[in-house]
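A quick aside before the break. I want you to see a complete sequence-to-structure record at least once, exactly as it would be stored in a machine-readable document. Don't worry about memorizing anything.
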Amino acid sequence: MNSMTGPDVDAAPSAAEPARGAPEPAVVLDVWADVVCPWCYIAKSRLRRAIDAWDRPHEVLVRQRAYELEPGMPKGRPVSVNTYLGEKYGGGEEAGAAMSARAARIGEQEGLRFDMAHALKANSYDAHRLVALAREMGGPALEDAALERMYSAHFAEGLAIDDHDTLLRCTAEAGMDERRVASVLADDTYGDHVRGDEEEARSLGVRGVPFVVANGRVAVSGAQPVEVFVELLRVATQPPDAATTRER
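That is the input. The structure line, written in tokens, reads:
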């Protein structure tokens, strides 16, 4: 796999499945992310801007892939993000708040709203399952709407993303059928989808997110600047032997 990190590019997975009758996309982007990751939220915004700036934006297909940063996080027991960061990396809540503030400042430059003082670290497994449901129900557009609504709930509204009432409301506001959502939340439907995405990430050597793979062979790690994502699109449409490998 070729890698672009910084003004750079990596290589990797599978082909997309365009809607029946739709032209084959020139670029398929597999995006591994977690809904409780601020850098993933920022990368989503930057990637969208890069696609819009590219000369063929309608030939790009984005496919969201599940990745849990803390799969062992107990369900129904959210904690303050600042407290969580301070305990994980040291320095206590004050240090955690400083880490959160940095991400929030960068996110706000992207036009995103962050309220990290009230953000809650919670298990994201069910949220990922519902993003998979959204794609099945309404394709990439509904998948994107559901994910965007979950990011906002977590980062701007201080809502616990593992709370089923919260997930029911967020997905309904994104345009998903409440009965289908409730049915999925009642069992482990799409759990195999989440586990499959995470297993593929491990096979690619992914150790953190966001991680974006273009056309199964070129990848970018991190919330890179817009111009790096534009370069990713350009390199992905070149013959494989034309891509170069760059390390961070």
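Two observations worth writing down. The chain has eight helices and seven strands. The chain has two domains: 2-71+123-242, 79-121. We'll return to this after the break.
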